[in-house]
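Slide 14.
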Amino acid sequence: MPSHSGIPDPSLTLRILLERPGFIVASKPSGMLSVPGIGPAKQVCAISLVRDAFPRSTGPMMVHRLDMETSGLLVVATTPEHQVALSSLFEHRLVHKAYTALLDCTHREPLHDEGTITLPMRLDVDNRPYQIIDHAQGRPACTRYRVLSRETDRARVRFEPQTGRTHQLRLHAAAPAGLGCPIQGDMLYGEAASAPRLMLHAHELSFRDPLSGETITCLDPPPF
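Slide 15: predicted structure.
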């Protein structure tokens, strides 16, 4: 069971779901860093495990990141050419991404079954790593959502981020001007004790291989 301590669990493993010349798609578990952190205890991460599995990989490998607490689909480049090309796809919003989340509805439920959240965000420089809604200085952030099911104290929601801001889904879920329902297990914007982990999983990813032209579609059902 992943911890809320912020220290990665070295026993976690990365599942390789797809291998192509120049990149892989893996399923990252909750509790694993995407890239190395600061200090020796935070050097084991998705990037380091891919490098161990593919020792001929060269150059920078990071294409995009998932929060340590978020699980699901992660693309990692194994050649410099693909790292540049794939990073450009993410930067220009040419990658379709979808997430599944369980929201804590103890105090409120999503008012609508589906909709779009447009709330600009920025880093809270006095309280890192928190992000805050700021209509004056925030960067544009847009999230589409659809409620999949409702229960007494929680809702299962599909999120499709149209932008890629840090903690975007977590803040748009929790903010009163958003859904007003934090993701269960969110130690920053909700209650860590509401679940054994952050209940957010990147379950769908689709893009066109910029060098081969192949359409890549991966699905990774949520583990909750």
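Speaker note: The longest strand covers residues 96-104.
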